[in-house]
């Protein structure tokens, strides 16, 4: 249960980081230049895709009532974390987003391995 929440929070951070990189102002803040329009568009599409996976995953795991509240709460916490990163260490935002994706994938895999070993 805790692993699902941590994965949701990591997905929220990664998705909202990608959405921030899709905005010209934040892209310039992170990369030092505005960047190509196609790259910013790809970041925005990737960000919305990750947010959609987060919401659908939350609804599937916790049901409609708790899942919707969990999705909103994790998106809020992720937005605060991305805003803090943009304020304190903007150049590290892409690196932290990659770590968040790796963490979001690793936690369920570790939980599944733990359950398999406990059942063996």
From TrEMBL:
Is Disulfide bond tagged as a keyword?
no
InterPro entries (alphabetical):
DUF3325
Keyword Transmembrane (UniProt): yes
- Its domain of life reads Bacteria
Q: Name one Pfam family in it.
A: DUF3325
Query: Sorted alphabetically, which keywords does the UniProt record give?
Result: Membrane, Transmembrane, Transmembrane helix
Parts of the chain that traverse the membrane: 6-24, 45-63, 69-86, 93-110
Q: What is this protein called?
A: DUF3325 domain-containing protein
């Amino acid at each position: 249960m805790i692993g699902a929440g941590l994965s949701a929070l990591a997905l929220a951070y990664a998705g909202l980081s990608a959405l921030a990189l899709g905005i010209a102002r934040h892209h310039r803040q992170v990369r030092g230049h505005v960047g190509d329009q196609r790259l910013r568009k790809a970041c925005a599409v990737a960000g919305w895709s990750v947010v959609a996976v987060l919401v659908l995953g939350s609804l599937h795991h916790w049901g409609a009532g708790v899942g919707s509240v969990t999705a909103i709460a994790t998106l809020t916490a992720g937005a605060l974390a991305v805003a803090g990163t943009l304020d304190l260490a903007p150049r590290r935002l892409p690196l932290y987003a990659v770590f968040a994706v790796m963490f979001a994938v690793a936690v369920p895999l570790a939980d599944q391995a733990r359950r398999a070993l406990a059942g063996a």
